[in-house]
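tool=predict chain=A
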Amino acid sequence: MLTEPRPAAVDRLPLRRRLLPVVALLLLAPWAAECSWGGFTLDDFLPVLIFLGPMYGGAAILIRETARHLGAGWPVIVLLAAAFGVLQAGLVDQSLFNPGYLDDTEYADTRAAAEATLVPGLEFSVRQAFDYVGNHIVLTICAPVVLVESFLGPGRRLRPWLGRPGLAVVGVIYLLGSLLIFSDSGRKGFLASPLQLAFAATVVLALVAAALLPRWRRARPRRVRRAPRPIWVGLVVVLVHFGTDLTPGWPGVAIALALAATTASLIAFWSSRAGWGQRHVLVAGTASLVTAAAFAYLVPPYSPATPAAALAGDVAVSVVTVALIGGAWWRLRRTSPAVHVRAS
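tool=predict ok
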């Protein structure tokens, strides 16, 4: 009979060592969310970390710590990441409901494509919702958490880093960062209707409730067949990114949702097989980051920039991405050559 594991205990290491992964995640989350895909030039990297770190980084820490305190796995992290994505785009900056949110950027021409999948009454684009929430799941939360955990040894990887006082501090940091973005400048003077706000809040609460279901904390027996090599897991994720933009409008949304659901199910199935380990998790979690860094050369930053400045930022993104993933892979080879991650 399967029983629920007890929540992992907080690390009892010196404060400096316990805070190192917290600070790393606090800085990595905003960089992955806004810089890794070419949204900002190199000169803007530091301001992004300073102004968006409390919100993006605070959310990543709180989500990761919630899952690890519960003794839960990646389904909880993904569901809470989706809840954060809806919270951020629907209630904080309200970009999900603001049709002119990108009008003062280099992406103003995407408005027509977004309006092709508008939901009557609620007046938001399903295409934009998929992109906004999806990017928050894979870039803002999952990729940074995977990277930081992969740099840790197997004894600390799945353990909480913070106790209640630390979580309270991070919660305040996140709240202050969100309030800064919620100000008129962050929302660009737009305020969603009560119906839109109620809809977004309901979706957030539903996702959080789903994440807290006990089923995600029950151990699952592993299947006899071995998991595929990590490279095949990464290729599947990369191919999904290419397939999500095959066609515009509602057919494109249907294809994107079907591909995302199929990929999630396939990864969940593979993770229950023997041999699934942290290297698979690293590849699955960072394949989207690699794809974003590769496409950074093809997209403009938010604000107009010279070709040289844009190229410098894209090259910096490539260097940082390779260094992070390469370093994490090297660290795993040294610290956990045969450590498996519980499928949940």
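The CA atoms of residues 223 and 273 lie 5 Å apart. DSSP finds twelve helices and two strands in the chain.
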